[in-house]
Give the backbone structure.
Amino acid sequence: MDTPNGYWMPPAASTVAQSVDDLYFVIFWLCVVFFFIVTGGVVYFAYKYRRKHPDQLATQQIGHNTLLEATWTIIPAILVIWIFVLGFRVYMDLIVAPGDSLEYQVTAKQWAWDFRDPDGCSVPGELHVPAGRPVKLTMRSDDVIHSFYIADFRVKQDVLPGRYSSVWFQADKPGTHNIQCTEYCGTSHSNMFAKVVVHTPEEFANRAQTFCKVTVGKEHGEKLYKNQCAACHTIDGNRLVGPSFKGIWGREGKMSDGSKVIVDENYIVESIRIPTAKVVEGYPPAMPAFPTLTNDDIASIIEYMKTLK
């Protein structure tokens, strides 16, 4: 998809862009219609009931009209509910990534974007993706709040320090699109640009030889596991001081305080940075903190954990 939408809108270059635009124009034209109804009514009644000469008596007090009042209450209520239903459907399409999505790691920092694909390939300031394949971005910030925005795809998501957020898209045609930060993040905020390059499947398959470099990923995470984690956590399901990593990713776990937690990026980061914050039921609070692990190290461990089915 890469269709011009008119009304000064950028091209609709993702599978969700058209539904976002359709919702926008529903709201826009409703506003236009009600603008003329309300403004026209004000002008008409101001003219109709104007004081025509100095001796004219005051207009007689007019009581309420039940039918009229019910009409201007019920019709807007129906329209608001309708907009909510349309908006909720679009919202769910935007936040629920397909199960076969390629998952990228995105790091925001003052004042640049860093992207890594599932194989650890990275190009500074460039997000390289295949056409016709859903792409999920798991994002974090190294410093302040940023906001990831691709106007042509109609996707936008805040990127926060200390936790992960995500967004997804699918672009069906090769091309290049701009990425912006839309949350003021310091003196060079206006220069925090990047681009997303959509490749044909053949070009993307050969990326390691053409445009990417391998930095971190599941291989690095496996090395960190052997050096830092293996003494307390197995990968074969057996119990040690801590729970096994096998099959843990995405699973709901019960904590010692009775609460339940989904094992995702935010939980792993918190467990490494503050091990006693959420202790798994049946295990002692014996895990130490690992301040020497960088954000990239933790991201690599997470990628490795995802492979332990």
Q: What stands out?
A: The longest helix spans residues 17-48. Residues 218-306 form a domain with the Cytochrome Bc1 Complex; Chain D, domain 2 fold (CATH 1.10.760.10). The chain is about 35% helix and 20% strand. The chain has a mean pLDDT of 86.
